[in-house]
Amino acid sequence: MERHFVRAVIFDIDGTLVDSFEAYHRVFNEGVADFHITPISRDILRGYLAKGLSLREILQRVLESPMDEDTYKACREKILRFFRQAEVEGVRSFSGTDELFRQLKDNEVKIGIATGRTSSPEDEWLRFKKLGLDRYISALVTSQEVEHRKPAPDAIIECAKRLDIPTGSCIVVGDTESDIIAAKRAGAIAVGVTTGHEDKQTLLSAKPAIVLESISDLMVYLKKEDNGNNP
Question: Which residue(s) pair with 191 in the sheet?
C-alpha cells in the first residue's frame, strides 16, 4: 500500500496512554468476590487483556460453568463502578503524554482514540477531560460502537473515518499484539509500545513498523516517517 505522510495518530488507551493495570486487577478481584469466583493473578489477567478479551470472555474463562445474563450484568456493573472510582483516585496518563499531544497538535497531526474498552464514548470523553487531554482529541471510538473488537480493524477504520484521514496516513499506537494486528489489517502504520501488557519480543513478532519504549519517543519516529515520504 502506498504510504502518504502521517496526518493522524490513533492511540489505544490502557497500557498505551494510561497506566491502569494495577487498578483494574484490584477492582476485578474485588468485583468478582461476591460471585464465588476465585481471584485471578496479575499474569493471567494481563494475558487475557493482551489477547483483547472482553470482560464477559474473561469471566467465562475463570468460571467453571456458564455465567447467566443477570449474574454477568451484576458482576460487570460492580467491576466498572469500582474502576470508575479507582480512575478518579489514582489512574494517570504516562509521563510525557500531555507534551506529546501538544506537539502533535502544533504539527497539525490529528489525534484519535480507538480502544478495546466496551464503555460508552461519553464515559471515555469524561475520563480524558479529567486527565486534561480531551482538548487535543478529534475522534474517539470504543468497542461498544463497532461490530468486532481488536484484532479486527473495525475501531481503527471507524476512527480514521471520523478523523477524515485515510488509514494509510495514520499511525496506530498500541501495547499489544492485537493492537498491531488490527492496525495492519486497517492499512495503517502499526507502532508498538512496551509500557503495557506485552514485552518487546512479543510485539516484534507481530511485525510493526517499530516498537517504542515510550510514547514520548513517537515524535522522533513520526518526523522520520514524514521526512521519508516527502521530498
Answer: 173, 210
Phi (first) and psi of residue 33, to 5 degrees: -60, -35
- Is the distance from CB of 229 to CB of 5 less than 8 angstroms? yes
Torsion, Cα 123 127 129 130, to 10 degrees, reads 140
Choose among 171, 160, 93: nearest CA to 128: 93
Cα 125 to chain centroid distance, Å, stands at: 14
Is the dihedral angle over the CA atoms 191, 209, 177, 21 positive or is it negative?
A: negative
Residue 3 has pLDDT above 50, yes or no: no
- Identify the burial level of 62 via C-beta atoms within 10 angstroms of its C-beta, where 0-12 means exposed, 13-18 middle and 19 or more buried: middle
Q: pLDDT tens-digit profile of 27-46?
A: 999 988 887 778 899 999 98
Give backbone dihedrals phi and psi of 19, rounded to 5 degrees, phi first: -95, 85
Q: What is the pLDDT of residues 172-200, one digit of tens each?
A: 999 999 999 999 999 999 999 999 988 99
Residue in 109, 105, 103 with CA at minimum distance from that of residue 4: 109
* The pLDDT value given to residue 1: 36
Strands 189-193 and 170-174, sheet pairing: parallel
SS (H, E, C) 133-146: CHHHCCEEECHHHC
pTM listed for this prediction: 0.84
